[in-house]
Amino acid sequence: MNRHQITGAGLGLRRGFISDLQSRIESGDDIPVDFFEVAPENWLRVGGRLGRQFRYFTERYPFACHGLSLSIGSPAPLDEAFVRDVREFLKEHKVAVYSEHLSYCSDDGHLYDLMPLPFTEEAVKYVSERIMRVQDILGERLVIENVSAYVEPGREMAEPEFVKAVLDAADCELLLDVNNVFVNSTNHGYDAEEYIRAMPSDRVRYYHIAGHYQDAAGSDDQSVDPSSRLLVDTHGADVIEPVWQLLATAYDVHGVRPTLLERDFNFPDLSGMFDEVARIKAAQESLVHV
Q1: Which domain, by its residues, includes 70?
Q2: Residue pair 142/131 in contact by the 8 Å Cβ criterion
Q3: Which of 237, 253, 150, 149 is nearest to 193 (CA)?
């Protein structure tokens, strides 16, 4: 089946602005978005008005799927029926990319949060075997995303080393989330640029970029070092300049790849999100034409 490959700059498609976005497209507005991304869980078996609205977009734009509930590192058995459902969803909508988080979110039930994996050899072996099983069912490579995490339980290696080990052991691909690198590097004392440079270029399928929240504790106290405040990956704010700079580093190191802006709430006017997507496109084009 011919699937629509993603290129350029993308935007996470959210129900909070989907109707406004459709109206703009139908009015002939020029939007800078080359592709969209959704969580398949939010659209599986959705019919009626919302189902028709979703198909309006999948018939006009390439899509990526970024999952929320595969729970690839869970102690519970892999939900193979769910993986087969996703496989059929990808085929139905001609989606060429399916990514998931390098984390877990369930055991006997769903936790509704992304929990950190221990950076250990045992975890590398466990999660890579589960990734390979998913790939067997899908008939294609899974793309895994480096995640934001606020603790590092059982750490025996650095996060970049753990991510690389999983990529190699599972022979899968990487969704390099630049904001997550920035958040974790700030919270845990990594060098963000070194983290980016440590990733294997041949595994990077696409990038994410997003805004985050800085814990306000002590924000009015000028004696508090800003770097000591906790960063929380929220996707609810504009992308900050250091993250834009880190994306430029990723382009320089790994090359220009499709890049998606995530925004999950606190939606600005669509023009505000379009400005950020256009900035991605400008950065890509400036390097492509060098």
Answers
A1: 9-288
A2: yes
A3: 253
Residue 142 falls inside a structural domain: yes
Distance of CA 176 to the CA centre of its chain: 7
The answer for residues whose C-beta is within 8 angstroms of residue 104's C-beta and 6 or more apart is 71, 72, 73, 74, 75, 114, 115, 117
Write down the pTM of the prediction: 0.92
Distance between CA atoms of residues 24 and 55, nearest Å: 16
Indicate the DSSP class of residue 49. H
83-96 residue pLDDT tens: 999 999 999 999 99
Are the C-beta atoms of 231 and 213 separated by less than 8 Å?
Answer: yes
* Regions of the chain with pLDDT less than 70: 1-2, 106-113, 216-228, 288-290
Of the candidates 79, 63, 76, 133, the residue with the CA atom closest to the CA atom of residue 106 = 76
- Cβ partners under 8 Å of residue 209, min gap 6: 177, 178, 179, 239, 243, 244, 247, 259, 260, 261, 262, 280
CATH of the domain at 261: 3.20.20.150
Give the count of domains, the chain: 1
